[in-house]
Amino acid sequence: xxxxxxxxxxxxxxxxxxxxxxxxxxxxxxxxxxxxxxxxxxxxxxxxxxxxxxxxxxxxxxxxxxxxxxxxxxxxxxxxxxxxxxxxxxxxxxxxxxx
Length: 99
Description:
- The protein is α+β, with helices and mostly antiparallel strands.
- It has four helices and four strands, in the order E-E-H-E-E-H-H-H.
- 39% of the residues lie in helices and 27% in strands.
- It has a two-stranded antiparallel ribbon. A two-stranded antiparallel sheet has the order 3-4.
């Protein structure tokens, strides 16, 4: 499964170690069904609005870090990573074939 590396602006602790970079992977359909929520809602204009709490749940799963480690993220990193998670739901995993 393809992963995207994200360099943190400030280190966090995960699994008892200092972490300066996270490897984020696309969530699976099974994981999305287990979380039971999308990481975004649609705003009044029809544009996606990140749901920070739900995105944080996906982030813990997709980065393989404890939920408590998500709480240590710098706000800039949390925002950027939340939108990365939302992007997984708004873009196909591979290009849609054209006929």
